[in-house]
Amino acid sequence: MENILYILLALLAAAVLYVVYIYNSLVRKKAHADNGWSQIDVQLKRRYDLIPNLVETVKAYATHEREIFERIAALRSASLAATTVEETAPLQNQLTGALKSLLAVSENYPDLKANRNFLALQEELASTENKIAFARQYYNDAVKEYNIAIAVFPNNLISGKLGYAPRTLWAVDDASERNAVDVSFR
């Protein structure tokens, strides 16, 4: 009888240790996904900071391009207010398109294309776009690992009860927006 009690206690201890292992694994994967989102947020903040300078520089040369300036300002404001992937991703995709339009406008203004400030902003924006792309990739990798971890058996038996839900991957809605912003006009 005593041996059966020891076996039951050992099984119970093994089950508790396994639940703790799964819980800790889920916490780590969730933290990686959170970190990925933070990295995107940092790069988007950098992009938001560049946009007013770029717009002001272009405005000095292309005063009658008001519609594009207003669209960029509205998208920037809406993006700053967005907090989730579902809210942020479409706005960022639209903002990328608007920035492409803004940079395309510069083609019509040779003096603008030669302006050192504009060229520096173009380079900074290109660098930021690359960093955003890397941050999105890291986020999607982390979310993929997290989503797999909560969905595989036997993790799926307890992940929902512990409050872990699948996360949304960063995706591009419009296939034409998959292209990076072309900022090289030299």
UniProtKB/TrEMBL annotation:
Transmembrane segments annotated in the record for this chain: 6-23
Protein name per UniProt: LemA protein
Location within or outside the cell: Membrane
Keyword annotations: Membrane, Transmembrane, Transmembrane helix
Topology in membrane: Single-pass membrane protein
GO CC field: membrane
Protein family (similarity comment): Belongs to the LemA family.
Pfam families referenced in this protein's UniProt entry, alphabetically: LemA
